[in-house]
Specification:
Elements lengths: L2 H5 L2 H6 L7 H13 L1 H4 L4 E2 L2 H20 L6 E2 L6 E2 L12 H9 L2 H26 L4 H13 L1 H4 L7 H22 L3 H16 L3 H24 L10 H21 L1 H13 L2 H8 L2 H9 L5 H5 L37 H9 L7 H18 L5 H9 L14 H24 L2 H27 L1 H10 L5 H36 L5 H20 L5 E2 L1 H5 L3 H9 L16
Helix pairs in contact: 3-7, 3-8, 6-7, 7-8, 7-10, 8-21, 8-25, 10-11, 10-12, 11-13, 12-13, 18-21, 19-20, 19-21, 22-24, 24-25
Length: 576
């Protein structure tokens, strides 16, 4: 039997859950249009905090240089008093191929939005392909693709305007997919695939997210090489120690080749950051506790961890007319306008994946990866981040450890896809005992959420939280929490209903009240609804022409730009 035959989805072919090859991309496209409907069907601009404060100006300059000069600009005169365009990363992702293409095809304010739309769609495609590569069925790939492309830890980056984070998160399953393909079937195609994806990730210019992704993929590559070397590979390889080591070396070679392919962006930026960047100089000068405090700022905190189950818990500042996300953040960071939520349904299905089934080693690896990502994201709240800060090169130059949380979401959604395949296999085999175990797990989860809901309604939960978990909560945060509590109770009720709905679906499958294809379809829909509802405050549009119209102050500045001596300007305007 060939290796690629081992990797094909047996659950789909044996269970009767047939998913046509064309259906997943069509569903991903429909979901993308639904999510971005206010942008797709209008001429408005997707709102992003960093986009309106800096991103649009840089991309507009870049688009103008491409059209008038036919080349990349060397200098960005209006940014921070003037900065080198490539070296200082002034243009962000300006050399990233999809961004270049879209800026050539559409006005900058529309291109900025279309590239995010494109990457949300591609995130679904890439995750579907990753699940298939590790042996998942098409149904499992569909679930994973829907959950990943709608995951608030991905979509939530739209509102703050963190497009680089969106690119890297969307490319993460592609990077893992190419890595798996390399270890499964090494050759020029897989070697080139790894190199091209590495180069693409570097061209996004979000080097911190790339650092975390490469770290996670590197651990996966080591895991796969050990599997091959010890002869315990779950894809059907025999014991070939030399093959495992050789494929790891080839993987590293492909990665270095990819980095070399992005040298035009990487090397000038590295020189600027290490030699001329004021921010880096300040970071390097910060020593002792000051440096640790800076690097651990914008970590996840216990409130954000609780929001992985009840997304409304910590509140948010994204707004968008959504009550739970409008001025409700009461956590420990200065502000919060993104989210780390992966989905309750995928968390429950991830737990189902451990009730028997194949690929135990992969499941354990993903559990370790996801757990490590959360512990690191918690920053100084746990000793794990401190070990990385002390011993791993580069970590001390970064802040916001919470960025690594996307690896938790990636791991959980992969496990949920394996969990769905486990459910399909159990139903197809008619294993009543295993179905009862799954139903019991889900029922207990629903009951636990109901208990938390009761404690929230009575005020006991928040009193315990502010006493035991967050004893130094400020008076302002306490007031925000008090006014936000009805939103938290409502959110807890929603996740309880979602858990109950999943339990009922499994009950229906167990008692043959629901057909297997219908049950799978309902589960995929449930996962989509779970994430889609949380995404709403993070996808907002704005009237570009109204925003860009010069008011009296701007007209005065434009008149003085070429008249008189240089002058100092103190702007009191808000970025929004």
């Amino acid at each position: 039997m060939r290796v690629d035959e081992v990797m094909i989805d047996h659950p789909a072919t044996k269970s009767g859950v047939r998913v046509a090859a064309w259906l997943p991309p069509v569903i991903f496209a429909v979901i993308t249009v639904a999510l971005f409907r206010a942008f797709v069907f209008t001429d408005e601009m997707l709102y992003g905090g960093d986009t309106v404060s800096l991103g649009y100006a840089a991309r507009s300059l870049y688009a103008e240089a491409l059209s008038t000069l036919g080349r990349v600009p060397g200098w960005a005169p209006h940014l921070l008093g003037g900065t080198p365009f490539i070296e200082a990363l002034s243009g962000g992702d300006s050399l990233y191929p999809p961004s270049v293409l879209l800026l050539m095809l559409a006005p900058p304010h529309r291109a900025l939005g279309w590239k995010l739309v494109l990457h949300i769609f591609l995130a679904g495609i890439f995750f579907y392909s990753w699940v298939r590569a590790v042996g998942g069925s098409r149904a499992a790939g569909l679930l994973g693709g829907v959950a990943y492309m709608l995951a608030p830890f991905l979509v939530g980056f739209i509102h703050p305007g963190h497009d680089g984070k969106i690119f890297v998160t969307a490319l993460a399953p592609l990077m893992f997919w190419m890595t798996e393909r390399h270890f499964r079937d090494p050759g020029w195609v897989s070697f080139s695939g790894v190199g091209l994806v590495v180069a693409s990730i570097i061209y996004t210019t979000h080097f911190q997210m790339a650092y975390f992704l490469f770290g996670g993929v590197g651990m996966y590559a080591i895991f796969r090489s050990i599997q091959l070397g010890r002869g315990v590979d779950e894809a059907g390889f025999g014991s070939r120690p030399r093959a495992g080591a050789l494929r790891l070396i080839l993987f590293l070679t492909a990665s270095v080749t990819g980095a070399a392919g992005a040298a035009w962006q990487l090397l000038p930026a590295a020189e600027y950051v290490t030699e001329y960047s004021r921010r880096t100089q300040m970071t390097s000068a910060a020593t002792g506790q000051v440096g640790r405090d800076w690097s651990s700022s914008f970590s996840m905190n216990p409130e954000e961890v609780a929001s992985l189950v009840v997304p409304e818990f910590a509140g948010n500042l994204a707004g968008g007319g959504i009550p739970w996300a409008t001025g409700t953040y009461w956590g420990r960071n200065g502000f919060k306008d993104n989210h780390e939520y992966a989905g309750l349904i995928v968390l429950l299905l991830a737990a189902v994946s451990f009730l028997g089934g194949p690929r135990r080693q992969l499941r354990l690896f993903l559990t370790g990866l996801g757990g490590l990502a959360v512990l690191f994201s918690l920053g100084a709240n746990t000793p794990i981040w401190g070990l990385f800060y002390q011993f791993v090169p580069g970590i001390s130059l970064f802040r916001a450890p919470g960025m690594a949380s996307f690896l938790f979401g990636f791991a959980v959604i992969t496990l949920s896809a394996l969990g769905l395949d486990r459910l399909i296999t159990v139903v197809s085999s008619g294993n009543a005992a295993e179905l009862k175990r799954i139903q019991k797990l889900l029922a207990v989860s629903t009951a636990a959420i109901a208990v938390v809901g009761f404690l929230l309604v009575t005020g006991i939960f928040t009193e315990m939280w502010t006493t035991l978990v967050y004893p130094d909560i400020g008076e302002r945060q306490r007031q925000v929490l008090g006014s936000h509590l009805p939103n938290v109770v409502r959110g807890c009720a929603i996740v309880m209903l979602l858990s109950a709905a999943l339990t009922v679906i499994v009950w229906g499958l167990r008692n043959q009240r629901i057909s297997l294809p219908a049950g799978v379809g309902l589960i995929v829909a449930l996962a989509g609804v779970d994430a889609f509802r949380v995404d709403q405050p993070f996808v907002q549009t704005m009237d570009f022409y109204e925003w860009s119209r010069a008011d009296a102050n701007i007209r005065t500045l434009l008149e003085r730009e070429t008249d008189g001596e240089p002058y100092r300007l103190w702007s009191l305007a808000r970025n929004d």
